Amino acid sequence: MTTDSVTLTIDGNSVTVPKGTKVIDAAREAGKNIPHFCYHPGLPVDGNCRMCISDIRTWNPRAEKHMPARRPAVACWVDAEENMQVFTDTPEVKKARASVMEFLLINHPIDCPICDKAGECMLQDYYMLHDRAPSKLREEKVHKPRLVPFGKRIVYNGERCILCSRCTRFTTHVTKTHELGIVNRGDRAIVEVLEGGDFANAYTDNVADICPVGALTKTDFRFKKRVWFLKHTDSVCGGCSRNCNTVVDHDGSEVIRIMPRERAGVNDWWMCNEGRDLYKEHAALARPAATLRIDGLEGGTASSITTWVGEKLAEYKKSDAAAVLVSPWISNEEAWLLSFLLGKLKIGHLDVMTGRTEGALPADDLLHTDDPNPNRAGAIAAGIVPDKKAGKGIDEIKAAIEAGEIEFLLLWGPHFGNDLDPELLSKVATVVQITDEHDAVSDAAAAVLPLRTWAERDGTWTNFEGHTSRFRRSLRPPAGALDGFDLLMQLCAAAGVKSPAKSLRDARKKLKQDPDSDVRAIVDGKFTFPEQSALYRHTSGAREV
Amino acid sequence: MSYPVVDGSRTILNFERGTESWPLASYESRFGYATAKAVLKGGKYQPAELLQEVKDSGLRGRGGAGFPTGLKWSFLPKDPEHPVILAVNADESEPGTFKDRVIMEENPHVLLEGIVLSCYAMGSNSAYIYCRGEYVPSLKRVHAAIEEAYAGGHLGKDIYGSGFDCDVTLHSGAGAYICGEETGLIESLEGKKGQPRIKPPFPAVYGAFGYPTIVNNVESIAAVTYIAAEGGQAYRAWGSDKSTGTKLFSVSGPVKRPGVYEVPIGTPFKTFLEDNCGGMLDGVGLKALIIGGSSVPVVTGETALKINMDYESCEEHGTLLGSGGVIVIGEGTCMVRSLMVMLRFYHHESCGQCTPCREGTGWIERIVTRIEHGDAEPGDIDELYRIADSMELRTICTLADAAAWPTKSFIDVFRSEFEAHIEKGCCPFGGTFPDHLNLRGGGVPQRRDDPEHAFIA
Ligand SMILES: Cc1cc2nc3c(=O)[nH]c(=O)nc-3n(C[C@H](O)[C@H](O)[C@H](O)COP(=O)(O)O)c2cc1C
Ligand code: SF4
Ligand code: SF4
Ligand code: SF4
Ligand code: FES
């Protein structure tokens, strides 16, 4: 045992935690969830709800015994100490907790049937666990304002509010924008947007997530769906290169809302409003159809077009007249297989494109980066870079197109308009576009293959700091949309290259064993871009476009 | 000349009543600042020695909790990284307590001299006086006194050429009882909403602006002047072993001479009532007593007459000396109604952070109000007791306890009155206070009309 850790017992079970750990966290380590409202691991402790009151006994070496606190202490505030004894379930503690529940409920409207939080409300959950007592209040309940807009995205209901100050602490300590405050004293207290403020920062929706009750609801979700009808799928936000881990709440065919998922070192507990709204962009996507515009070969099915593209690629083996440009929305596994295929075919003009530029917020101190695309880092690490010897990067490829030197151009993924205008593309004999979004390029390309979006397929992305996150399929893809990885395996087959992986799953295993340490690191999620590395320069260079 | 003590025990109110006692010249004629000079310039005490005198004096905090003052000071870090701050608690808002205002209005320099000496003993160079916002006369007098003291060289840099600096800042509160709680006071002083902090850390370690801070009541600090002048042992001439010195009591209710009195601690209440307060108003019997401000448990008149006004005797009789706010309750006063108005206060003043206090103070007020209006059932009394009980000891500060204790003690001591309300379906006292409490002409001496003058009987 080092001096940096302490050992204590929680209900008799011994647990060792780093010094400075709060008792409530130490208890969680020991498998005990101490009920709490105001405590949130991402916020400074406030200790106001009194729900986590526990019997915390410190060791007194002089008296050689454990001393109970004179005033029962709250587990969220007290630091774990060596040889401390914590009891979380004694009759006294339970009584204290039940009385806190009773106090919280006397003035609560208990309008669960019309409350959006119902089903994921801490007050409801703890009521079922701890109190279950009928309300004893004969008195008129305290009335407070109920439909107060907090900016455009949040609505406040003062009667449901338990004044835990999570929301105000969020604006004070996380966004540091200080819009929200608790005004008035006693049971007249309410949360308000402070005078002169507008609750319009880029992260406002988080307050509704952390509100333990239904006092803060999102205008985007209000009365849309009961939460128990939602299906939850782990996903990742592609709105910028932060890659906030998310949960997509959907009903199988439609996304209802996107919520942040805790991921230390990436987004912790938060995500931005823009990322939450991406599902609307997704729902409005114009989806491409499988198309072939080659004289004599018009029409064709997705699989015949795939074969045609694969064979065409093989025709350009070792040729200087072919180039491939990849969107930073490609997954790591797809990027890895694509780069393998092109390596075998010795097609060296290969690069990552600028990608999405619209909707780019300026980078801020909290989460948002200045690259509104998810996977530039992963694509590069997985090998989407020009061939070391003779390969051309994006600018050189554009120049070569201008000079009429490129005959075959493969475009993978959405958002190409920012780099290539149709006029430039008209100088290329054969443009093949594989994408989830129909755009101007799709109207002219020789071949188009429809892809599944981030919400419709599995994969991983790696963020700008090298952390890899996995997204899973949440929605049924529209008919005809192809899985990127499967498509790549078919392209390999058509081009006569043996795919190194039999499936996406297999690819993940192979990535782990890849000789290139950057590639291996993608899987571990330990990938880092040293400031000086060539790769990093490449990324930042690309971002400047 | 030595420190003048009037009437054998007035060390803080040691001036002729009705005279202009507050200007510097008047104070100087009463040994004013002689002690500070002797200590700072004359080398009477080293800081540690003065701290020891305060410890030896047995002085206990006069703000309510009665914590030994010298001991509190010794909790300061030995070699503090940051400057030490003294915050003088002049927020006096507890119902029934109005002693500090008399010190501030009638003898403000004894407080300032106490501040200089206390700062010297605890190694602080800056003090704040946090004064209740409604105390406009106090604010004016203390402000004027601070200016005089700076001009006279008793405050500021290098006082009396001793090299010791002491700056005093007067801060006005904005009318919140909770800003009298020491950490609520600190938050308010920092410019934030007055909400108590969770302890530990205690202010002596992490206080105002993150600096080590000692919070003491006005009367505690004022008492240091006498202790420094005459020594800790001299202070022990009054009182008992555990309750030493003199204490100010502010008396309200149907007595002949309500007001503020400084008497030896441990004076029997019976003697105090008769000698100092002139006894009860004619024809009004002593029904009950709240001896230490509204937060302490009530006792019957019978018990009251057995109490000696010190810490031990109060505890022995089931109450607390508290802040010395003596609320005398006369026969004919409805105890349910009395509790109702007290709870209205706590409900109004709860800062609202902690669930049990925020929701509980309003809840018990509503129940008592129903009982007073006869709109209650027999079970409501036990329910009230149970709720008060569950507010106790579960909150950040003791305001919740301060609302719960009187509630429980009113029921314990006067349960039959609660029952009578419920049985009758109305207030047996006619739903009002008796005439002797009618301050607009019930025969009770009135506060002088001149707001510049505090009322001293
Ligand atoms: C709700 C509440 C209000 C208080 N108000 C005052 C006050 O007005 N004046 C005061 O001196 N102490 C007040 N106190 C006590 C202070 O917290 C603190 O104990 C005191 O100022 C310490 O000074 P002392 O040791 O000199 O008594 C209050 C305590 C509570 C819980
Ligand atoms: S609105 Fe929600 S998060 Fe904010 S104080 Fe009220 S209950 Fe807590
Ligand atoms: S910060 Fe970036 S990754 Fe995170 S939610 Fe916003 S857009 Fe999405
Ligand atoms: S006990 Fe009451 S007054 Fe004290 S901190 Fe809690 S809510 Fe505020
Ligand atoms: S969770 Fe500890 S007091 Fe609220």
List keywords for this structure.
heterodimer; A: 545 residues; alpha+beta; Ubiquitin-like (UB roll); Alpha-Beta Plaits; Rossmann fold; 3 domains; six-stranded mixed β-sheet; 16 helices; 22 strands; 28% helix; elongated; disordered C terminus; B: 457 residues; alpha/beta; de novo design (two linked rop proteins); five-stranded mixed β-sheet; four-stranded parallel β-sheet; 17 helices; binds flavin mononucleotide; binds iron/sulfur cluster; binds FE2/S2 (inorganic) cluster
Describe the structure.
- The complex is a heterodimer of chains A (545) and B (457).
- In chain A, α2 (91-106) packs across α3.
- Chain A has 3 domains: 5-100, Ubiquitin-like (UB roll), CATH 3.10.20; 137-227, Alpha-Beta Plaits (2-Layer Sandwich), CATH 3.30.70; 291-539, Rossmann fold.
- Residues 529-545 of chain A have low confidence and may be disordered.
- Chain A has 16 helices and 22 strands.
- Chain A has helices at 23-29, 91-106, 122-131, 166-174, 206-210, 273-283, 302-315, 332-345, 376-381, 394-402, 422-425, 440-444, 484-495, 504-513, 517-524, 534-544, and strands at 5-10, 13-18, 53-60, 65-68, 73-74, 85-87, 148-150, 154-156, 180-183, 190-193, 216-218, 231-236, 245-250, 255-260, 291-292, 322-326, 350-352, 408-412, 430-435, 447-450, 459-462, 468-471.
- Chain A is of the alpha+beta class and 545 residues long.
- The longest helix of chain A is centred in the first third of the chain and has 16 residues, at 91-106.
- Chain B is of the alpha/beta class.
- Chain B has a 5-stranded mixed β-sheet. Chain B has a 4-stranded parallel β-sheet with strand order 3-2-1-4, sandwiched between helices.
- The two termini of chain B are 28 Å apart.
- Mean pLDDT of chain B is 94; it is low at 440-457.
- Chains A and B meet through α2 of A and α14 and α15 of B.
- The structure holds flavin mononucleotide, iron/sulfur cluster (3 copies) and FE2/S2 (inorganic) cluster (FES).
- The site of one iron/sulfur cluster has 13 residues of chain A, from α4.
